[in-house]
Amino acid sequence: MTDRRPRVSLARLGFTAEWAEATLTELGWWSGDGPSEGAEEVMWALARSPDPDLALRTVERLFENVPDRRELDTALRADVGLRGRLLALLGSSTALGDHLVTHPDRWRRLVGSPGKEVPPDPATALLTAVGADPDGPPAGAAGGSPAALTGPEAVAALRTAYHDELMVLAADDMAAVGERDLPVLDVADVAARLADLAAAALRAALAVALAEVEGDPGRLAVIAMGKCGGRELNYVSDVDVVFVADPADPATTRLATRLMRVAGEACFEVDANLRPEGRQGALVRTLEGHVAYYERWAKTWEFQALLKARPVAGDPELGAAYAAAVAPMVWSAAGRTDFVADVQAMRRRVVEHLRPDRADREIKLGPGGLRDVEFAVQLLQLVHGRTDEALRSSTTLDALAALADGGYVARDDGANLAASYRFLRLLEHRLQLQRMRRTHLLPAPDDHAALRWLARAARMRPDGRRDAVGVLMAEWTRNARRIRRLHEKLFYRPLLAAVSRLSPDVARLSEQAATARLAALGWASPEGALNHLRALTSGVSRAASIQNALLPVLLEELAVSPDPDRGLLAYRRVSEALATTPWYLRLLRDEGQVAERLMRLLGVSALVPDLLVRAPEVLRLLAAPVAGQADELLRDPAEVATSLRATVARQHDPKVAADTARSLRRHEMLRVACADLLGSLDVEGVCAALSSVWTAVLQATVDSVQRAVGPGPSRLAVIGMGRLGGAEIGYSSDADVLFVCEPVEGADDRDAVRHATTIVETVRRRLAAPSPDPALVVDADLRPEGRQGALVRTLDSYRGYYARWSETWEAQALLRARPVAGDADLGRRFIEMIDPIRYPDNGIGDQAVTEIRRIKARVDAERLPRGADRGTHTKLGLGGLADVEWTVQLLQLRHAGDVPELRTTSTLDGLREAGEAGLIDEADAAALATGWTMATRARNAVMLVRGKPGDQLPRSGRELAAVAVGLGYPPGGDPGVFLDDYRRATRRARAVVERVFYGW
What we know:
Layout (H helix, E strand, L loop, with lengths): L5 H7 L7 H8 L12 H9 L3 H14 L3 H10 L1 H11 L3 H9 L19 H8 L21 H28 L8 H26 L6 E6 L1 H4 L9 E8 L3 H17 L3 E2 L12 E2 L1 H10 L3 H7 L3 E5 L1 H15 L8 H14 L17 H15 L11 H10 L5 H25 L12 H10 L10 H25 L20 H9 L4 H12 L4 H18 L4 H14 L6 H7 L1 H11 L4 H6 L24 H13 L4 H24 L5 H27 L4 E7 L1 H4 L9 E9 L5 H19 L10 E2 L12 E3 H10 L3 H7 L3 E5 L1 H15 L7 H17 L18 H15 L11 H10 L5 H25 L10 H10 L8 H22 L4
Parallel strand pairs: 2-3, 2-4, 7-8, 7-9
Antiparallel strand pairs: 1-2, 1-5, 6-7, 6-10
């Protein structure tokens, strides 16, 4: 005979604990070779619970506490509803199991079949628990009914009543897990009941607060926001609220504050940070105050949040008035400038800030998560709900159904998205129910026990090929991918609502030619595109006629760009800014290459249009070069510098001179950016051109200020450091400098320094004046003693400091020093003075090498921004700019004293010379040069694409695609190819750094 020991049978039923057999025998449900007579169904219900061991242990504790064990045992054997509810609940939630053990009489509330009757309003139970009249005027209204209980007694009573109701709801939710023939409670119904329970708790907490607050507070309405407002709450969640008061005085503020404390101690955290001005704003406001704020100051996300606003407690009339006042603003918000782009940017920011090691397990925030569904649905609601009131639901699933019914979303897409959303909400509910903790994270892949529990709790069953965990993970992957695919389709490519000539009154989804055309061209916001087209082509002017002729061609060109939406917006901005420029549209019409090039630039870069509206003359340089002549986008840097200085020198007023220098810099920066993005200028050419412009601006401004100040007791020289000294300036680089002076004959050092400091401060102030152009920052922090040291020193003072106090890092910083402005002879003598410091005979010793390595390691550890990806941070990342530059500088400090060819401020020149001198393998030198070049180009491209400085490469999305195209990768291609190339180049550079710099 086959050995059929009880332990094997229990293991097959899902029990793993050693004590299970003894406990079941003691309870009378196990007889040694199988379930006891009459206990078979109890055993099967236990076996079907998510965690049979947990359920059994909690049942044992419950039996120890109930007054009549026989009554409970009899009920479990006879009542299928009780079995399904109780045993599934106890195997699902340790927290609610503990609640039931603490209050053992509550098991009777689980008797009967769930889903047969409409559950009672929980507000009655919670208000009664705190001694408030459920039928009286609500607390917060005039003559509202306060609670009879206050203080800790009220909190304890409310906590117990809240958990009683939560226990019953969770038991209903889990019942079908324990008994298959019981009805399944839809996740949307669970979420709605949870929201109603939270609303009831807020009403009870308000009644307690009213009894505790002294004085006579005015009317107060509690507006639920977020998931509570949308009746789609989780088991464990903050409840977002907004308070509306009449009047908004200290008494109503105390009432609201007390409500938050009571609810927080008894039930859940109450979060009022969605109120106007967030945490900095007043906790309560009048209705008029709310309306005034939303009309004048509110941002796009605030109207998106208001979509779910719902009065749930307090004065019902005041709450209804609030809802009526904000609704028109919500449903007109989509008409705001850049509304769609703002909503899309919010979603991208959420994804970008996820921890990379958790992103693929994030049920709520990750790609393919709940937020993808909610953002897509809300965007479509806000865009199309302006003309279709059927879409104005605060509940995601109801709104999605309405979108599908109205034709805004394909029925299959709507049904699939709803099914996947329900699945993810089910997982979220089960995870939170287990320990009543706020979580949205799937268990780690190696945590098989947690995954097995979740699979059983979510009703996953083996399918013959996979166990329950395998089925769970397959379903998670399938649903997350489906959500992400549909999110991209709906969120970034919603169907077009109207064609450019249709009026808003007839705006409806259609498959007309213009709809198909713009959708096919790839606009993420077709409605926004239509608004731009209407603005560009409206009227009967000649300009409108030219735009009508141009736009089909321009749209085709924009369509292949990474971001056609931003490109069209930029084109509209440029067109409106140049509306009075007579040659602008004529140039686009008659010079085909100008239009083509302009669309390529606008579809990639945010910096180009910002500069173009203030330097439109650069547009002429985009024309095809005349035969036999050079491309006007490409100019000799020395010629540009000479022209800039000559132009500024003609200005007698130093302020006008500085403004002229800045204007010419804007022109040249735009020219270089266009040549860069169009592939006409390599990275060395870009750095040389920008460095030459920066140097010329400094020279011209210093000269103009010196002319204005007149002869004085000192000569001044400006020494370029860092990237300025190395002629490696990028679009976002500051100008690192040292200021050195020397007294003229007969003057003392103090007067010389004072005079030179006046000139320096004037120059810095003129260049740093506020401007929409990229900042002109003259940074002198590399001077002796840093920010605490004197801004200007004499040559002798520098000599004394470096002889006595100089540290290794300062010698390293001086490697890139070169005169860039001011007195040329003084600059030359400063360089002669520092040469022995930065190029020491016989190089630096082992102790100094160790110190440099230590400083570099500390920089790597401390200066990388939080959340940055070291693999794609262009400056401080692995194999990035800092890695290569420090390696070259260490070679210079060790060998430039003996190898004069190494005495260069240029990183790439230093690498070439080190390779030719045999100080580094030529293949290693090439790898470092490639890594540095790739990082420099990528850093410049980030500035061009975003229009603001940044060292971190985008992780995904249109920005990453734009960076890739800006670097010459084909439009429409996979930007991951660029990322792969970047990582490969910097990885190889890092390997050399580890050998050459660190000596590993």
